Protein: Enoyl-CoA hydratase/isomerase family protein
Organism: Amycolatopsis dendrobii
Amino acid sequence: MADELVHYEVAAGIATITLDSPHNRNALSAQLRRELSESLNKAREDDAVRVVQLTHTGPVFCAGMDLKEARGAGSSDQGVNEFPRILDQLWTSPKPVVARLAGPARAGGIGMVAACDIAVAVPEATFAFSEVRIGVIPAVISLTVLPRLTARAAHELFLTGDVFDAKRAVEIGLLNACVPAEDLDKTVEGYLKSLTLGGPKALAATKELLARPRPATPAEGFADMNALSAGFFASEEGQEGIQAFAQKRKPNWVPQD
C-alpha cells in the first residue's frame, strides 16, 4: 500500500523489512512501530523465512522516537512504552536479523541496530545517544546496547551524547562492519547467504545459547551443554546435515536460488 511506512517482502528465504518514512527520518511513529512489529511477527511465523534483513529508504536509518508525538503526552501515553516489544522481537527472533544502514541512526534507532544479530553500515553513517541532550535517558535501549558496547565507550557516549562515526561503532562493538557505499549490498548479501546455510532449529538454539548467562566455570556448564549438543546431533535436522555432508549436497533447509 502506498501509505504504509514499513514494507515486507520475502525472496529466497530472506524477509526484507524496509522502513519507509523518509519525511521524518524514519522516526518511530505510532504507525511505523505498529507496522514494524507486524512485519517482525510475519517473519517469525513464516516457515519459508530463514533470515531477516532490516533496512530503510532515504538518507537516515532511524532517528529514534517521534518527538512530535511525544510532545505533551503523559508518561502512560508515551510511544516509548511500545518500543520494548520491538526490541524484544529483534533480540529474540529465532531467525537471525541483519541490519543494513546506508545512513545515520540515533537513540532508539541504535537500540534496534544493537538488537540485531549482525549490523553493517557505510562510513557516512553516524550515531549518537542523544537522549541526555533533550533531558531524557537511554533507558530502554540500554538493554540491547550495553551488551554490545565496551564499558568505557558506553559511559562516554551515553553521558555526552556526542556523535560518533561508523568506524568507531565497529571498534566498540555496535557494528560488525563498515564498508563503502558501493560494497554495502554485497556485504549484507554475503552475511544473509551465509546465515541461510545454517539449520533453522540450530540457528534458533544458537541464538538462545548466545543469550544464556555464562556459568562461573566451564565445568559447571558441561553437563547441560553436552545434553544439548547430543540432542542436536541425534535430531532430524542434525541427521539431515550429517547425511548431506557425507553425500556432498546441500541440506534440505537451504533455500533454492
About this structure: The first helix runs from residue 30 to 45. The two ends are 27 Å apart (CA to CA).
